[in-house]
Amino acid sequence: MTIKALENFIHDRKQARGLPLTILKDTVLGIDAEYFFLQQLSPPGKKEPLLHALGGLPFSLKSCLETFLHGLKGVGIKPVFVFKGIQLYKNERPFARPDIRQQKRAEAWEAYDKAKGETAVNIFNEIEPIPVSEVSRYAMKLLNENGADYVVAPYSSWAQLVYLLKHEKKFIDAIYGPTEVLLYDVERVITSIDFAGGGFLWISKRNLLAELGGLGSEQLLDLAVLCGLEFSIPFPLIDQPHLTGTMAVRSARDLIRNFVSGYGAVMAYAENPFVKESNYIDTYRRAYCAIKYHVVYTDKGVLEPIITEHAPNDIHEFITQRLPPELYFYLTKGIMGPEILNALTSGKLIESVPLDGGESLEYRRFLSDLESMRSQSLSLLTQPLHRFYQAKRVYVVYWYERNNEHEIPHRLTPTTYETVNSWNVHSKVLDPKLMELNQKEVNLEFAVVSLDDEKFAASTVTPKTPGEMLETSKEIVANTYWRFLQLRSFVTPQHTLTPWGKALVAALKASRTEDLFAEPLIAALELIRFKALTAKTYTPSYTGLPIRGTDVEKAHILLIARVASLLPINHMPIGFSGPLSRNLLSFNSFVAKYTQIARTLIESTVFSLLANSDADRLAEDNAGWAKLGVSLPFTSGPNSGLGIAMKTYLDELCGKPEPTDEVERGKMKAELKKLFAHALDVVGDVERGFRLWDTVVKAVKLAAKEGAMTNTEATAFTDADAWVQQRR
């Protein structure tokens, strides 16, 4: 996020200057990742408005990033991306700021339901882009694949970039980022790069201060805080409908001129009812100190204020409670994500409204059922930490119950770590099994299928032995996956497969190796257990349900389409074109939330393994740690595009006189290509969706046979399978 008012002022006053890109040849460029992705994916022509109607990641994300990296390489610039870390302390209650995004989404769907497609797209286009935090893990994976460096800041990326620039070793030579960078001891910042024109735009702090009437550097910080930052509200006297952009900046400047400083202005209006009601004096102090004494991660692996001189000793009051240095290290490498750390430091986990609106009771029940996974994650995270964090209470606050806090219990007996610490399998046991299964690397599929061998499963019962720590990434990843599978009841504490584990093995063995179905299959079986993956219509008022055939046929189509939704549609790097389904977007909310929490559980499992010295933390170099972070599964959830394509195919086929006729099915293939014109291979994707369906049905049959599912629950799948066989 940027200081929007100041950004507008800079734009209006034409403060940005241009220079040729060749000036940056043979330099290292520090890039604010959030600023970059918002800039790349938000402008007209690049923004994908229907992302809010599909879920998942932008189709153009990979193309935008790789094109940019290729452009930098062509000029001789080495990039270092810096991602944002843990959220700063916010002195406000959850959902205190209005969220107009959901209102806009509802308006867009209302227009779409009235066949006003263009109006709907325009309204979707007005909504702010999805948070960069939702694409960060995938972006890190792409950066790693392209050999580009990145780091996650402990808190804000701005201060971390300044630290890298100002360090005596000159880790970077320039910064490409937002205007917030100028709040520090930095003279200039690059704000945009144009490879086609061969130039870049930059802003001079000296010129900006002159344009602001000769303000000083400290007063620029005052002005920024008064105008409002990402983590603090604007000064109430400036936060007025008629004061926007340049006018807000001028008002803040005049206040500073009249009262010498921002703090002087705030204190002058201390008795103002709006200032009193918002507790703005405290907000101002915290925001000012959070910028001035921001905490950075140093090259020595410790955290310290970017300005140590006169730094207060209560930094935790305006940053957050301090965590162990080891946790920050794993955060910087992308092994740990910030979500669970935000919850631990703040004591609150905020559950915002999903893209579809979250109106279904089933989704709200599902969120409540996920408490067990969250408890496991927090237990793994806090068990090796100080007693302060072991005893700290963490609450979840839902958008539909803003005034209620639900505690997430994590002081478990035995601890979650104690239930899974019998997995300490070394290479001497692991490598022969990898060779036997013709696997080069450890992945989720290997972790599951290997335990189908009872003799091998018995050999994995390996209590921790002093002096015999795990050493390689391969060992760390394998034991993490096995611990995760046990936590999710696919494996018993004795390391044998549960009925659900046997069902998962059967499904994986029936799938093609190249389909890589381990993640969607685990998600499918978990969602079945959570009673989320069913043929039931959750929100009948949502459009996009099957409309042809009998009620039974409609239920079959909906179930099959939901399974297909567990896979992404392969699409050109441009905005989506094709029919939409708010109903399938609703199911996508289940998938996205499970994906997020499964990833958090895996990250907590890795941390627990490392923090308890089950592995040698000195055995890996920096490249190895980064590779470990991007190798973990559940990087991102799919969009609902393939589910829509599957639903469209089966629903339209139901309207044909002979839906099982091969000629009719051939015509529908051609129709699919027209409807999803920008999909790379929609027919191939739908066929892959059917292959996933086959494996899920196989798993369901075995789960029912083993007594893990009722026959009634399984019948919904087997009946749909019998119906669809002649319609494929």
Rounded to the nearest angstrom, the radius of gyration is: 27 Å
Count of beta strands: 12
Low-confidence stretches: none
Contiguous helical run count: 33
- Net shape: globular
| Strand arrangement across the biggest beta sheet | 4-3-2-5
Helix content: 40-55%
Instruction: Give a short account of the largest sheet.
Output: 4 strands, parallel
Instruction: Report the structural category.
Output: alpha/beta
Strand content: 5-15%
End-to-end separation = 47 Å
Q: What integer is the average pLDDT?
A: 93
Question: Could you name the key traits of this structure?
Answer:
4-stranded parallel β-sheet, alpha/beta, 50% helix, 728 residues, 12 strands, 3-stranded antiparallel β-sheet, single chain, 33 helices
How does this structure look, described?
By secondary structure, the chain is of the alpha/beta class. Helix content is 50%, strand content 7%. The protein is built from 33 helices and twelve strands. A hairpin with a 5-residue loop joins β8 and β9. The protein is globular, with a radius of gyration of 27 Å.
Compile the SSE list and pairings.
Blueprint: H1 4-12, E1 17-20, E2 27-32, H2 33-41, H3 51-54, H4 61-75, E3 77-83, H5 100-113, H6 117-126, H7 136-145, E4 149-152, H8 157-166, E5 174-176, E6 188-194, E7 199-204, H9 205-211, H10 217-227, H11 246-259, H12 262-268, H13 273-277, H14 280-292, E8 295-297, E9 303-305, H15 325-332, H16 338-346, E10 348-351, H17 361-369, H18 371-382, H19 387-391, E11 395-398, E12 406-407, H20 416-420, H21 427-436, H22 444-449, H23 454-459, H24 473-487, H25 499-510, H26 518-529, H27 551-564, H28 582-611, H29 622-631, H30 641-654, H31 662-675, H32 682-705, H33 711-724
